[in-house]
Amino acid sequence: MTQIKVSTKIRSSVDKVWKIVSDLDNETKFWKGTKEIHNISKEGNKIKREVIIAFRDSKCLQEVTLYPKERIEALFTEGIIKGTKTISLKQLEDEVLLEAIWDMKLSGMMGMFTGMIKKHVKSGTEQALQAIKKEAEQ
Q: What does pTM read for this prediction?
């Protein structure tokens, strides 16, 4: 497994940042590696969905769990990516620490490319957090 950890501080409230990151239908606006999202089911704070990612237009299935104003855990259950992406928020004095942690690998024969893809995932995560920061600080 490869771990990628990216964080940024945002001059905003947890409420405002949470409103942005928990709007899962708008994820493609910030996460450029996510091309399409199709929700399959929702039960309480758990959402099952199909995600089309930019890497070869690959289809992945996710189980997303929302922990309001704390974190979002996305478990990749099927597809080219295996592992998790966790988005967490922590209120500091007058800022919010927004952190994204990937614990992932590519499945099957694509596993040998995990190291190469790591750079792209990290760059995309950095861009996503900066876009979220920009929106939250408006």
A: 0.93
Where are the domains positioned within the chain?
A: 2-136
Fold of 2-136: Alpha-D-Glucose-1,6-Bisphosphate; Chain A, domain 4 (3.30.530)
Instruction: Say which amino acid occupies 86.
Output: T
Write out the chain's pLDDT in tens, 138 residues. 899 999 999 999 999 999 999 999 999 999 999 999 999 999 999 999 999 998 788 899 999 999 999 999 999 999 999 999 999 999 999 999 999 999 998 888 877 877 778 899 999 999 999 999 999 999
